[in-house]
Amino acid sequence: MTLSVFFWLALTSLVSAHASLTGTEPADGSVVDTAPQSFSLSFSEPVSPLTLKLIRPDGSASVLTDFALHDQTVKIVAPNKLDDGTHVLTWRVVSSDGHPVGGSVIFSIGAASAAPPELTETSDLKVSTAVWLAKLILYITLFIGIGGAFAVYWLWPAQRPARRLMQAILSIGFVVTALSLGLQGLDALGVGFADFFDLSVWETAYNTSYGQTVILLLFAIIVAFIALSVSSKKTAKFLSLIAVIAGAGALALSGHASAAEPQWLTRPAVFFHALTITLWVGALIPLSTALYRNNSDTIDGLRRFSSFIPYALLILIIAGVTLAVIQVQQPLALLETAYGQLLLAKLAVLFVLFLLAAYNRWKLTEPVVKNDSTARKKLARAIIVETLLVLVIFGIASGWRFTPPPRSIAIAAAQPATVHIHTDKAMADVAVTPGRTGSVVVSAVLMDGDFAALEAQEVTFVFSNPVAGIEPFRRKAVKTENGSWEATDVLLPLAGTWKIRLDILINDFELARIEENIQIRP
Q: Whole-model pTM above 0.85?
């Protein structure tokens, strides 16, 4: 597979962050008797809304700005005087990793419209391509540009051509990194390049965690550039060290891996993973240049590099394995998810890279130290190949921006489907856990018409799916220690809209029946 195939795999996968929608009110595809006074969107993790919009049956749209955040749920005040017919609630939110996700909820008031409002596709392949390319250049800037500035002064200080090349990379990287903030805003709001200079686009991106990454990385680029420009080698070494640390820290501020729990482990793992990559990859071009020029610093720098790089690679591998285990969780996810497939592709290229690095370290380094000119030329060419393989890995890793990790998919799958059933006589907060097909646990908290706890003698859940031709079946609930009613091992074999009814025996003479639709995921 080529790099373009990996890129295409990333862009054609589900473009979302690791926050996933777990429930809505009204439920997607539902028909409600009266206009709701509010909407709610529940997610697998805390989010911040970017855009909320309601499209009415006549095609007109209203931007919804009156909302409140409650843990992982966005509560939205509905507009007044909603007409009968099909409505579309479109939403776009950003999660703690700085990545946006969007979608739509379709519901009808009274009855579905004969011609539901049309939805326009907000995804833009040009924007996605630009985001991927900017991510690739960002990696090159950090690992090759900033890492190269460090290597130039700590390993091969006499490399003027390498310094000029690093300055060029940093200059381009500074511009692209700054522009990537605008691209993040376009992607977050789901708009095209025509809105690139809109101030709200940049403000939206700046307020995400990616905004922090950009600010710190720009600082690291400036410091590295200054290091390459000053005449004092002592000052240059100090500044290049600061730049490497700041650059690695920038990656730990946003992204899938940094946002994963436990963050006391994942953020340091991202930092050390990035730091060791910078030290390793940043040394490749200066080393290759030094080998071709073969000046007095070449052998001394090669010895220093060869002595510390095995330890750096060990830290890199430990941090990488830690992050992979947290993100993938189940080995089968390597094959079944786009994230896992990109990880396998990266590991395949990385395996070849490690073999080549091992050959260079154990077969060519010693002859080069002994001034073997043939070995020196072979090592210089091999390092060029290493650099090309590294660029392929960067391209693959940039595709992760578009693929939710299996960890987040599993979190979303385990989230309950919930519904609030409201009548004058009795109410219930019902949860189906997990909210997907298969064996589930159904629980309900009962209340009377005034939201006070409702005591009952017996509760039975009744499920049916008229569209699929599944007649009602009953499961008796048991009262738990916390006062809720629960039924276990309830089998819901199909995804879609299910009707759930609660038969509540309040006393020997009074039976309340309340029902509502609930959405079950595949």
A: no
